[in-house]
Amino acid sequence: MTTHPGPAPTTATLPVEGAVLTYDVRGDLASTTPDRPPLLLIGAPMPATGFATLASHFPDRVVVTYDPRNTGRSTRDEPTAAVTTAEHAADLHALLAALGRGPVDLFGSSGGAVVALGLVARYPDDLRTLVAHEPPAGGLLPDAERLAAVQADILDTYDREGHGPAMARFIAHVMHRGQVPADALGAPAPDPAMFGLSAEDDGRRDDPLMANLRGGGARDGVDVEAVGRAATRVVVGVGAQSGGPTDGEMAARSGYALAAALGVEPVVFPGGHNGFLGGEFGQTGEPDAFAATLRAVLESPVPS
């Protein structure tokens, strides 16, 4: 794995409705141009720390990362309430307005890709290029109703038993390949210890992932028509190790479905869902090859 020296990040905060966001800027915003705009790297609910390795591969770009509301250093007024894609998109819109250097390029992975698609649909002038990597938009899939039922079961488990049992169900769910079977809800619950989780309930109900699921999560649809109308160039990414359009993990299947709906060819990125990670959260993908693919996508000609 290769990392590259680059400017140390400058950290700032931004008050938005119901929350205070914390974000980092690597480089001088004043040096950006319309042909070389800032590059945002986002996840949801992944905080900015998850993009340290990927950001290091772009020392020649001004790179912006942020902690979504209720994640990492960011806060919100109601930490146990649902957070919707629309709220996350409004937060991003406010952040881009504060940067004042748009339209920008954005790489969004997983929930961050869903949020970015919501941003394009609602604020079509904010982004020049969006690279949406494995968006878990289950509403695009033929087993959407079963996916929504499993998500509801995860939330019920969280409310009833706490973080460990709910996360064990979530991890098993996102690792499953192919459509959700009809008897999925009747299957034995996974042991949290299998994933290094505790089965004890600590009483907390402020987990940011669960807040996102409560706000929509896999039930979220993508406004394909609005995204297609926007001037933003949308590139859909899928992981080489995540499986295909019918036999893959849910996020990969959603990526293939989104690409088909938009009439574009998906770009296959090295690794799987965590392909860009370089040891963050104890996970390592193929960050060097992943960053090279992302650079090639970003530097390909942008349609006028």
From TrEMBL:
UniProt source species:
Phycicoccus duodecadis
Return the SUPFAM superfamilies for the record.
alpha/beta-Hydrolases (SSF53474)
Q: Which Gene3D superfamilies match?
A: alpha/beta hydrolase (3.40.50.1820)
Which Gene Ontology terms describe the biological processes this protein takes part in?
A: glycerolipid catabolic process
Q: What is this protein called?
A: Pimeloyl-ACP methyl ester carboxylesterase
Q: A Pfam family for this UniProt protein?
A: Abhydrolase_1
Which superkingdom, per the lineage? Bacteria
List the Gene Ontology MF annotations in alphabetical order. triacylglycerol lipase activity
Q: Where is the AB hydrolase-1 domain?
A: 54-187
